[in-house]
Amino acid sequence: MTQDDPVALTRALLTTPAVLRHGFLDVLGESTRAPAPTFAQRAMNSPFVATVYERLWRPVSFYTASGVTTGAEQRRAASALRLAAARRLLDVACGPGNFTGPLAGRLAGGGLGVGFDISEPMLARAVLDNSTPRTCYVRGDARALPFADATFDAVCCFGALYLMPEPYRVASEMVRVLAPGGRIAVLTSYSPDFFPIRHILTTGARQIGLTMFDRHCFVDLFAAAGLVDIDQQAQRALQFVAARKPG
What we know:
By secondary structure, this protein is α/β, with parallel strands linked by helices. The protein has helices spanning about 5-15, 40-45, 45-65, 70-80, 100-105, 120-130, 165-175, 195-205, 215-225, and strands at about 20, 25, 90, 110-115, 135-140, 150-160, 180-190, 230-235, 240-245.
């Protein structure tokens, strides 16, 4: 891969026709709106949240939930995904690209980072704040990623699976588009085994439309999909799970 136009490179990877709108490729079309039945999902489709997400919303909320800073998160992600040896990265539910841009910069020479989301306000903000010669943003539905099997060397989703109506289907799609030898990583909610704490977290999260996952959900999903080198780290109410596809 050479340092060509990232939009052209990404369009060549898509299995669905896309229109370039507001700087991102859209496979859904202007009339298709992101589903937002819960408070949390409505927030992620808000232009205001898209504006403050990277500088205020995410750093504060995720540090509170895990005690890990954004910079430390990005370094952990780059290490777990072995980005120095990867050429193509897919960042699912990328939001305003606050991870897509920095992680794309860690790819091997000529690498391409694709940020994928269903929210138009988030992607518009990603184009404004986190566009680089090595990034492109795509609007679509993560339950049916518009890419062929084994397209990406690294696939990630940080801080979004607990918002989605079908998180396990999305995770399975992420595994599908991961190339043999590639690595996957997710950062998502974590509910400890201790019942009183689990009950409090689960009940509170349900009120705003979030799903709390236990320690087994994604470890078991990755193992069932044949992934290896599965590593899980839990901090407070968040868990980071990474794995490799054999090959």
